[in-house]
Amino acid sequence: MLRLRPSPESRRLAVFLCLVFVAALAARLVWSSWTAPVPRSLTDPDYYRATALSLARGEGYSVAYSDTYGSGAYGFQPGGEPTAFWPPGYSFFLAVNYRLFGEGLTVARTANAVVGALTIVPIYFIGRRLLGRSAGIVGAVIAAMLPSLIFWTPVLFSDTFFTFLFASAVALLLYGQRPDGGPRWLLVLATGLLIGCAALVRGEALLLLPAVVIWWLLSGVRPRAALTAGSLMLVAAVLVLAPWAVRNLRVMDSPTLLSGNFGYNLRIGHADYSNGRYIFPYDLWQVDPGITFRTRESVFNDLGMRWALDYAAHHPARELTLSLQKAMWLWRPDSDALAWVAIYGPTRIPQGLSDLLRFLLDCSYLALLAAAAAAFLQSSARKALLLPLILCVFWTATHIVFFGEPRYHLPLLTLLTPMAGATVVWIVRAARGKTPGENALRHAV
Prior knowledge:
disordered C terminus, about 450 residues, single chain
């Protein structure tokens, strides 16, 4: 009987990645435990907490809403009416953890820390597939200790969980292509299913579908094979999303594929008060005060879309300015994370330490961007890095349509960290005299 045993090198790699995971988890748990932020009323984390508790208690994807400030029920609470304002994936993730381990916020923050640490695994495989084993290893280490990925962990936004799913989908689709360029059909199907799951957390996951087809075509894959594989992934993703769309049609009386906040988010990015990032859309909230949140969701979507499109059509010059502002906010360093943990946590961060942490966040993020750009500038790596480039362009364009926030670039860091890792490997080997000039990166990885 044939027994497949891992080689000593594979065992050493597995042990090393386990150690990197433990270090990543420890850093996230320490930060989460020390800061322990509480979801602010009427924010995304408040909504996710409430809907997750509803699910965990068997009340379905529902939420109760009160805008009476000072009342015990102010903000979002479990129970109430069915909702579809935000995608349900992150709420389901939290609900499973609440059912298994209890309903405390510590459970939710710990769950975030675990998936955040696990993200180093797909990052390694992304780097290995694109740039080589060394780049994958160094990229995983960078991601484990990167402040941008650590500091957002205890804040109950969906971004940490989505980043894990996004990186896993990218890693899977990279291995779904054979060396001769043809698709591995089972992996392509699995990638589509995973993209569907990720889209239930954040709809931006669907950008992977056109991006990978374009990447395949530019990489020399035959058009028929690329389009067939892309269609298979699309069908798989739709199969995952279809039950949720049917639920919305039946329960919410509207054809909603993912969430009902499309018009709401569009209005935030196209109004007199727009500034390129999230800003509270007071004009939408002032419409029909006193209506239920379920009714308000429909009002937000319909009026928000209509007003946003009207504003964009009548203010073309300002739209250009807003587009630049949105791109700048999307790629801005992650010092916003400090505000969320400092203002809404029990631990007051001293000003001197806060300034130091802000400096650390900004410098580490800018250094990462510079190192990733250096990898792309190497002529031998450009073809391998077409997919990250395409995804960065698609991501930026999408947020120009809506609005930018620094945390929205977190999924892209799973592509940039192995690129930075390749640059680090190249520098180290070049310093040792082991790499020739213009092909240094290729030889390094």
